[in-house]
Design goal:
It contains 16 helices and ten strands. The radius of gyration is 23 Å and the shape is globular. It has helices spanning 29-36, 72-75, 80-95, 109-128, 149-156, 158-165, 168-178, 211-215, 219-225, 258-261, 265-274, 326-332, 334-342, 348-358, 383-392, 397-411, and strands spanning 62-64, 67-71, 100-104, 143-146, 183-191, 229-235, 247-248, 285-288, 294-295, 306-314. Helix content is 37%, strand content 12%. It has an eight-stranded mixed sheet with strand order 1-2-3-8-6-10-5-4. Strands 7-9 form a two-stranded antiparallel ribbon.
């Protein structure tokens, strides 16, 4: 028997090791312009065309200005396989697609109106005391901003809060980008007639840092940053183009050095040349990758106060921009939660969306001396699991308060 010689392979590990650079090379405005030109074939993350092909997004009703438009009715009541497929499509839109999509009628207009009435009371009180918030990227005095509108809404009107966030379509959008255990925060923004456009920017995390700070962040961490947050907005008024809906630059999120480049005038010029706007109706939702170049537009109307609930949703392992006292939110809306849990009029997806929005769905950080991993697993029970069990057995508000206090004590350092 003759043994054949073993084939010779050149394994990658046998090659001289190539050091991965820590920082981006200097930004190239010509490459950025080519990425964002609708007919371009230049791309950064994966090969492909920067013209949105409707066939790539079969769940979308249409494509307008390179942006897929979905209808909430098509995203409700999906079975497990269809739901996974929908999440895959939405994820692809944000990662290597245009980076932005719209969901028509994401929140029913009647529910939006109830929430708007509660939020307007909050705005009036805060402006009466001089405590109303400013904006990150717009001149002061041109809008009304409510920080932590999520917690304030729950305290102001638990019923309308519960109706608003018992929304499986919103939860589907959140999970598609961030996975489970997402954490939602919300800020209300009202732009008055005459309000000027924002400066073009990227969003949280690195979009809120100075260029000097960002340049010291390794480029792989810059790319990873966009995966930690989902930016969204629910229109609380109709938003015709003259009211200044958000200016968007499709595919700009695929440009790697964008967190360092968006403040450079030459890149701002590309944005001014290539950005698009879509009119929105009350109840429509807009979702986009935080790395997308964007800016709220100028409100040139005489009498339309453009209002939106800005949703900033964080992955379990990202730090949210706002701190929310979720135990207080839970107790503020506990009676609504109990009624919703028992109410057969809502789908399981809508009920679960409401509870998930109110809770911390992640086990960490915690004090592992007092809150050790269970014998059959690695993670202590998160607030979400504790609350689901309490709702399942019909706990009242007093019992819920005691459970939440015990959980807080276990997690306290």
């Amino acid at each position: 028997m003759t043994l054949e010689a073993a084939p010779t392979h050149t394994w990658p590990l046998a090659q001289p090791r190539r050091r991965v650079p820590r920082a981006f090379t200097p930004a190239d405005v010509a490459a950025f312009d080519a990425i964002c030109e609708p007919a371009s074939l230049r791309y950064v993350l994966t090969p492909g065309s920067t013209t949105t092909n409707a066939a790539d997004y079969p769940l979308a009703r249409e494509v307008a200005s390179n942006i897929p438009i979905y209808d909430a009715a098509d995203l409700r009541h999906l079975g497990p396989e269809a739901r996974d497929a929908a999440m895959g499509e939405l994820h692809d839109v944000l990662l290597t697609g245009p980076g932005v999509y719209v969901v028509r009628d994401a929140v029913p207009a009647a529910i939006v109106d109830r929430a708007t009435a509660a939020l307007e009371r909050i705005i009036k009180r805060e402006e009466g005391t001089g405590s109303g918030g400013g904006d990150h990227f717009a001149a002061p005095g041109h809008n009304s901003r409510v920080w932590n509108a999520f917690g304030k809404h729950a305290a102001e009107d638990p019923a309308s809060f519960a109706a608003y966030y018992a929304n499986g379509v919103l939860a589907l959008c959140f999970e598609s980008w961030l996975g489970e255990a997402w954490a939602v925060t919300a800020q209300v923004n009202v732009v008055r007639p005459g309000g000027r456009a924002q400066i073009v920017h990227r969003d949280y995390h690195l979009g809120f840092q100075s260029p000097a700070t960002t340049s010291r962040v390794p480029y792989l961490s810059q790319l990873a940053s966009q995966l930690l947050t989902l930016q969204g907005a629910v229109a609380h008024t109709d938003m015709p183009l003259e009211s200044g809906p958000t200016l968007l630059l499709p595919y700009s999120q695929t440009y790697g050095p964008g967190y360092e480049a968006y403040s450079v005038p030459a890149f701002q010029d590309v944005f001014a040349k290539r950005s698009v706007q879509l009119p929105l109706r009350k109840g429509d939702a807009l979702f986009f990758n935080p790395a997308l170049f964007h800016a709220a537009g100028s409100n040139t109307t005489a009498d339309l106060h453009r209002a939106a609930n800005l949703l900033q949703v964080s992955a379990a392992w990202g730090k949210p921009m706002e701190s929310v006292d979720r135990a207080k939110v839970l107790l503020d809306v506990w009676d609504e939660l109990v009624a919703t849990w028992r109410d057969g009029s809502l789908s399981h997806a809508d009920k679960d969306a409401l509870v998930a929005a109110c809770c911390d769905g992640y086990s960490f950080p915690t004090n592992l001396d007092k809150d050790p991993p269970p014998k059959d697993g690695y993670c202590p029970a998160p607030m979400l699991d504790v609350v689901r069990c309490a709702l399942g057995r019909g706990a009242n508000k007093v019992e819920a308060a005691e459970l939440l206090a015990q959980l807080a004590e276990k997690r306290r350092a």
